[in-house]
Amino acid sequence: MTAAGEASAPLTLVLVRHGATAWNEGGRWQGWTDNPLGPAGQQQARTLRGELAGQGFDAAYSSDLVRARQTADLALPGQSIILDARLRELHLGDYEGLTLTQMVAHDAFASWQRDPWAHPVPGGESLGDVAARMQSWLAEVPAGRVIAFSHSIAIRTLMRALLGLALVPQPGYPIPYAERVGHARPVTLRRVGGVWSRPGR
């Protein structure tokens, strides 16, 4: 099949954010910091296992960060998982480990907020950078039914790129997406005839 044919072949893509970590529970932004799941996150992944039971996947992928890998292993025991660094969270650079209050107080925060899609976090990435690597990964994903364990901002950035979602500034939140993605919660997208949609929306 040609590259164009592969891009238009039917694909059901299930995107899953990792379970919660101690930093999530403490309100600290973690980006590429490699934190493991906390007890609550492990239970979230086990709960997801029951929801996914009986669902077959032609391929399963995960960010190489440990919180995503652990979620994948707990939710899909026995499934072969392909690790890919392109599924990582937004690299938060100087903001890694900060609370939102600390982030807002950073000297470069206001300039980043003016256009986070085009302007990178100091020492990190822009949302556009995340979109580019996520779409690079997606271009290699086979048709069929696929699951990928990733991260909140990364998942919503891919959704924005595929579905054409608007960037909407959120009061009190630095990422301009109205959509929220819960811990260990699946989001299903479908590609039919080269057109992406979110069933039920």
TrEMBL record:
Protein name: Alpha-ribazole phosphatase
Domain of life: Bacteria
GO cellular component term of the entry, any: cytoplasm
SMART domains: PGAM (SM00855)
Chain residues that bind substrate: R17, H18, G19, A20, T21, A22, W23, N24, R67
Pfam name, any one: His_Phos_1
InterPro entries: His_Pase_superF_clade-1, His_PPase_superfam, PGM_Phosphatase
Organism of derivation: Deinococcus reticulitermitis
Gene Ontology molecular function terms on file: phosphatase activity
Record-linked CDD domains: HP_PGM_like (cd07067)
Residue positions of the active site: H18, E89
